[in-house]
Amino acid sequence: MTDWIYLDNNATTEPLPEVIAAVAEALREHYANPSSVHRFGQGVRHRVECAREQVAALLGAQAKEIVFTSGGTESINLALRGLLSMHPERRHVVASAVEHSAVLRVMESLERHGYCVHRVGVDADGRLDEAEFNARLSDQTALISLIHANNETGVIFDVERLSRLAVACGAAVHVDAVQSAGKLPLDVSRWAAHCVSISAHKFHGPKGVGALYVRRRTRLEPLIVGGRQERELRAGTEPVADIIGMGVAADVVRTTMPEMAARVSALRDRLEAGVLRSVPGARVHGVAAPRLCNTSNVGFAGLAAEGILILLSEAGTCASSAAACSSGALEPSHVLKAMHVDPRSAHGAIRFSLSRFNTDAQIDRVVAELPRLVARLGRLNGERPTEEASP
Ligand code: PLP
Fold it and tell me: How far apart are CA 345 and CA 352, in angstroms?
């Protein structure tokens, strides 16, 4: 626990106390190699397999469809590169224009290797342009990748329906569920996706561990070869403690999701209402689309997001501009650009991402700070100050 008001949960989350306890116990007690034949090793194997069941339950998958990886980025790379072997003769790839950089960078790499990548646009609220999506699908499409819930805006794509459209053309389908796992009830058995990526540190688990759902009978080439771990899809001795921690996190977030979602969405609404009331010119990006319960992307027109973040941080609040990994870049985010957000609002866009650990009092403090801070930045910029709200 720290004194920060931590509103940067789409970047990473605070591990649950149960997770910390389970990881510490595993490091201390369950250090044998799960591939060893002795009983100590087999006990550890049993724990890894229990964690696999817990992670499978979070996704609505079967345990044998779960491959542990080092996190979201590795899962995405394994899926996107590994699924291309399903249709080696096809050279077209389709993704949305608002994917995470982990997907976008793979797409750029595929382009350098001769693939033709179609990036499908979104509307002003971040909803996928389905007419364009359909038009891009053909018998030449090798692979389709869609983000389930956007890390910057929280906007949710209907991947259950979209994945069905996508497989109809015979292509391999991957869904990036890194932000939705643990925040939305998932049932991948109803999706037509071949692979789904998730990452433990986004749902109060440890960093450095994630999973890829690989639908039964899917042909997937491994990225990392060596030992025979993870059904030969991901070689290397398993990070047992992290896997156990991921299993515990999956179990807790699955069983407490309805209460969490109700509480966190009320906090998010309180934040948005407070900010819109007290900061002139503020607007919420993606507000009319279905969104994650915890994410609010607010544009402060005419201000630079970096300045707001620095003052927020001085006031003890952690938030983010665009994706955490691209903070510091002065370019407005590719997601807001794809939504054709007014550049003045996009430059001043702050992502507040909440969690079960936030409180009403914290949100009220941020809402009280923001008008003062925005007015201060306006003065620093030499602009006419916006009205200062009373403390
Ligand atoms: N996909 C999305 C939507 C994300 O938000 C992130 C992380 O921010 C990733 C993938 C990458 O996950 P990881 O940090 O576990 O590599």
Answer: 15
Residues 6+ apart with CB under 8 A from 95: 103, 104, 107, 117, 118, 119, 120, 144, 145, 146
Confidence band of 209 (pLDDT split at 50, 70, 90): very high
Tell me which of 2.40.10.120, 3.40.50.920, 3.90.1150.10, 3.10.129.10 is the CATH number of domain 5-12+257-381: 3.90.1150.10
Non-local (6+) Cβ contacts of 198 within 8 A are 55, 58, 59, 72, 75, 177, 178, 181, 210, 211, 212, 213
Strand partners, 175: 146, 196
Name the residue of 146, 179, 209 to mutate for ligand 1: max ligand atoms within 8 A of Cβ.
179
Atom number, ligand 1, closest to the C-alpha of residue 74: 16
Residue 198 is encoded by which pair of tokens?
């998730």
Residue 235 pLDDT greater than 90, yes or no: yes
Residue 359 CA to ligand 1 centre (angstroms):
25
Verdict on whether the full-model pTM lies above 0.85:
yes
d(CA 243, CA 56): 13
Q: How far is the CA of 281 from the centre of ligand 1 (A)?
A: 31
CA of 307 to the centre of ligand 1 (A): 25
The pLDDT confidence band at residue 240, using thresholds 50, 70 and 90, is: very high
Write out the H or E segment, with its range, that includes residue 174. Answer: strand 172-176
**Ligand 1 pocket: which of 199, 209, 295, 325 to mutate (most atoms within 8 A of CB):** 199
For the chain, the domains span: 5-12+257-381, 17-253
- Banded model confidence at residue 383, pLDDT cuts 50, 70, 90: low
Q: List CB contacts of 164: < 8 A, sequence separation 6 or more.
A: 191, 192
Active site residue 325: yes
- Tokens in use for 387? 């009205």
Using one digit for the tens of pLDDT, what is the confidence trace for 72-124? Answer: 999 999 999 999 999 999 999 999 999 999 999 999 999 999 999 999 999 99
Nearest CA to ligand 1 atom 12: 72
144, 166 Cβ separation under 8 angstroms:
yes
